[in-house]
Design goal:
Radius of gyration: 18 Å
Order of helices and strands: EHEHEHEEEEHH
Distance between the termini: 24 Å
Largest sheet: 7 strands, mixed
Strand order of the largest sheet: 2-1-3-4-5-6-7
Structural class: alpha/beta
Shape: globular
Strand content: 15-25%
CATH topology: Maf protein
């Protein structure tokens, strides 16, 4: 495995999303590893996230980046599942409407017009895969439950955060302090579950030599 100048192992996170990069730097801080992203190691791959499940999409990113870099690689696929829309947008969350995050937020609000508060329940889901250069695969998954607000609120976060209301906290995800979001979000919970696996594999104490089912 390539070593960082400080002698630490390197963990590659297969994302170019600025919001995800910021969150991963903070969420993976407990690891004694150098966290890097594709542009940091000079790798640019054309990955089409056209899978039918979160696992498929995450593996479409993690496997080629692990192979190209020779590094232990993490990738995720996340989505917003709205009960009144039968789980949509789900795996299509990033492509729910053309344009920006704000355009997709407006499209979702429009599609929920007339839906009462008690029927606007939803959840963020995050599926994380960990892929070794040898092809071993593990995954973790977590959700964060909430309600889709009638209007956006808050300047933090990204994606659908401004309309994802957390009843127990009385605010949207975008209104949370960063440290709070990094404790309760779907991604924070999925990363938390992955930290033990990552720590073991980065120190080469785990068995990374054989393919494991993504559901293990």
């Amino acid at each position: 495995m390539v070593q960082s100048p400080q002698g630490r192992s390197i963990l590659l996170v297969a994302t170019q999303n600025p919001g995800k990069k910021r969150e991963y730097r903070e969420l993976l801080a407990p690891l004694e590893a150098a966290i890097c992203f594709p542009d940091d190691v000079g790798i640019s791959l054309d990955v089409r996230e056209d899978g039918t499940t979160y696992t498929e999409n995450a593996l479409k990113k993690a496997r080629p980046y692990a192979s190209a870099s020779g590094l232990l690689t993490v990738a995720d696929d996340s989505g917003l599942e709205v009960d009144a829309l039968e789980g949509a947008p789900g795996v299509h969350s990033a492509r729910y409407a053309p344009g920006s995050d704000a355009d997709r937020v407006r499209a979702l609000i429009k599609d929920l017009r007339g839906v009462p508060w008690d029927q606007r329940t939803a959840r963020f889901r995050c599926l994380i895969v960990i892929v070794s250069p040898e092809g071993a695969v593990r995954h973790t998954e977590a959700v964060c439950e909430g309600v889709i607000a009638y209007e956006p609120a808050g300047e933090g976060g990204f994606g659908y955060d401004p309309i994802f209301y957390l009843p127990e906290l009385g605010c949207t995800m975008a209104e949370l302090p960063r440290e709070t979001k990094n404790r309760i979000s779907h991604r924070a919970r999925a990363v938390g579950a992955a930290l033990q696996i990552l720590s073991r594999w980065l120190t080469e104490e785990g068995d990374c030599t054989a393919e494991e089912p993504a559901g293990s």
